[in-house]
Structure formats: structure tokens, C-alpha cells
Amino acid sequence: MKKIIKNALTLTMVTMVLVFSGSSLMAQESTLPQEVINQMEKVVDDNAEYIQDIFKDLHANPELPFQEVRTSGIVAAEFKKLGFEVHTGIGVTGVAAILRNGDGPVLMYRGDMDALAVKEETDLPYASTKIATDMDGNESPVMHACGHDANTTFVVALAHTMVEMKDKWSGTLVLIAQPAEENVQGAQAMVDAGLYTQYNVPKPDYFLAQHTAAFPTGSFLATDGRLTTGTTHIDVTFHGIGGHGSSPHHAKDPVVMAGMAIVQLQTVVSRYTDPEEVAVLTIGSVQAGVEHNVIPTSSHLKLKLHFSTNEVMDKMIKGIHDICNGIAMANGLSEDMMPTITQSGFGPAIYNDEALMATIRSATERTGFVKHRVDNISVPGSEDAFALIDGLEDVKGAYLFVGTAQPKLFAEAQAEGKEFPFMPHEPTYQVDLDGITFGSKLSALVALEILQK
Fold first, then answer.
1. CB neighbour class for 4 (10 Å; exposed up to 12, middle 13-18, buried from 19)
2. By percentage, how much of the chain surpasses pLDDT 90?
3. Do residues 69 and 93 lie in contact, with contact meaning Cβ atoms separated by under 8 Å?
4. Res 379: pLDDT
5. pTM
6. Residue 206: which residues within 8 A CB-CB, separation 6 or more?
7. Which residues contact 167 (CB under 8 A, 6 or more apart)?
8. Which residues of the chain carry a pLDDT beneath 70?
9. Which among 63, 107, 117, 121 could bridge 140 via Cys, Cβ 3.0 to 4.6 Å?
10. CATH code given to domain 230-346
11. Are 282 and 271 in contact (CB under 8 A)?
12. Looking at residue 25, what is its pLDDT?
């Protein structure tokens, strides 16, 4: 997950205001019997040590995007042991598990599996010491610096809980262990590989995902409406005619074209998009040439887009094409030498269903394990979970940020004037073991609420 829990959320979490104010959608109050909630908590508590051991193993053995072979194998084995219909290798390493339990709605729950090229700097006894080579051939240390080990563990925990409580719910549970969230490619890869066609995974009526966050265990973020921005990656390669640095008139300089683009692309946000929408264009990489006195034959820009809707994304991409092609034409290049512009990775903006979120809020108010709740804060980052349901009609989705930082560490950080004890993608990022149990209970509570008899 990219750059979560910052800015506005910080202001709320610094004081850790207890928010149990109810909802304007009171018709969506929880109807799950209290005895079912109590039974669920006991089941999760009874399985806590087993589930935490799985988490420790995943943390100690992280794998990079599209390399989650060991991780997906562990998850698939747990699903098979519990009697799920299991499909593996979807979108390279993705796993889908199906449990049909009578009539009722289809709930899809997703957890992401991949880690990051970060060297771990925690003192955890199960800290990662792994070294891996990424898809581009770069070797680096690897750790779960974003909590995807916990997100994956939540999926396994939910499988165990729902199997043990099969007599308390009715419908179909679909569990997804997704690869490659960090490069926002894994969810779309699973869909493109035939998740709903070749593998015949039931299309969901409800969709749920959770992600760890560096606020205290026992707290969670419950936003209805837009929670995150969407994101995609754009690569632009300008083609030119190389030459000697002393004779630029004999060349067509792609470095100059890239420089023009860096400036002009800023108008994609200011002139192509509605100011009331969210639109961010970041140029994260500029690559061209090797020698001082050689005009190269190409230059390359790597762009990162964030947007509030897919329509905004389309307008931004059109602007990129218009500007870059215009620069090439202004530099006298022929049509067959227009820039090469490619898109990779996609995560739509996450919009949480208002009625479903009202029900979730109501359900959590009936528990003892939820200590704090923060309502209706959007975050600037992005994630590709909702690409699994993008384009499907009438799916009610919910994405929850789950506090998994030890309360003691959070309090110590606050006392030192820090916003959080650590942030995602930092080498000190860690997940409280009690946070594994908390997230397991929260996902089971929502699943049982949705699929109750």
C-alpha cells in the first residue's frame, strides 16, 4: 500500500479520539446475533497461536511481487485442508478459494501477499534476512515493510473461523490471496488470467479487504465514499536521432524533448482535469544518454498518476499523449518516430459503500475488541484491490485500515513528538501479534454480518 495514514489521519490519531457516534444510515444497523459475535471471538482466540505462527513464518520468508510461490503454497495448503475449492497460479501466483455453504450472497475477501526490496531493521526474533532478485535482475534484501504478511494471514484466519462457524452463516465465501500489490499489477493480472471466466470464481455481491496501519491495535478507519485515489504507471520513450554534441543541428535531441515534456506535462493536472477532482502526475524517473558529448537516440520518462475516478485517468492519459506527440512533431519527427507511450499497473480509486460501512460501524459498536474507530478520512495513496471488481455491477465494497501497532510503541512515539512509531515501507515497520488477532476478528465480524442466516 502506497503512502497511507498521513496528513488528516494523523491529526485525528494523535489524540486517539474515541468515535462511536453512530451513523446517519441507522436503517443499516447490525442484526448479527450477539451470541454469534461472542462465539466468533472465542474461535479466533482459540486459534490465535496457530494463526500467529503462520504470520511469523510469512514475515521471516518474504517474497517480491509475482514471486510469492512459497507464500501462495502455504495459503493454498491451508485452504485445501479446510475443504475449500482451491485454484492456484492465477495471474502467476494468485490463489482463489471457494466455500459454498447454502443459499445467500457471495462475499469475496482479499489479502495481498508481496513484500518489498527493503532491508529489515527490527529486532524481532522472526525478522527477515532474505535476499532476493527482482524481475529486473536486481538483488536486494527483502522484508514485509507494509504488512502484507498480516494481510495474508487475515485471509487464512478468516478461512478457519468461517469453517468452524459454518452453521452460523449461509452463502458463498471467496478468498483471494493476491500477488503484486506493490506494483499495482496483481489484481488486474488475476482478472486478466480468467478469474471469473477460466476459473469460474463466483462474482461477488460484497467485497472486503483489510490493510495494516501504524496506529494502535484495536483501532480501525471506517470511511464511506472515496477512501483512496486510483493509480497507474505511464512510461514515455522519446525517439530521436543521435549525433555529436558539437553538431546538434544534425540530430533530433530526445533529451530536449524530455525536458520540454517535464514542464508541459504539469498542465495535464491544471488544464486537462476538473479542479474539483483529484489528479496528481509525478515524474519519478528521467533516463537518457551516457556520454557528455553524445546526443542519444532516446530518452525515457516514468510517470505515476493518481486520480479520483477512471474518467479522470482517461483525461490525464489523453493529455500525456497530446503533449508528448506534439513535442515530437514540433521537433520535426516523422509519424513513425512518435513517442512510445505504455501503461502498466492499475488500481481504481476505492469507494466504500455507504450502507455497508454503516453496518460495519454498527457491528463494531457491539464488540469489546474494537477500542477506537476513526470515520470518514480519505488518504492520498492507492492500492489495486478494487481492480478485482472494477467493471462489475452492484458490488458493495469495503476496505478497512486496521491498527496493528503495539499501543505501547504508539504511545512512546507520541511522547517523543512523532506522528507514528514507523510508517509503511520503512525498515522498522512491524505488526503487533495482538494486531493479527484483532484483524482476524474484524474480518470475521464483517463476514458473519454479511452472510448471516
1. buried
2. 92
3. yes
4. 87
5. 0.92
6. 105, 106, 107, 108, 356, 395, 396, 397, 398, 450
7. none
8. 1-27
9. 117
10. 3.30.70.360
11. no
12. 37
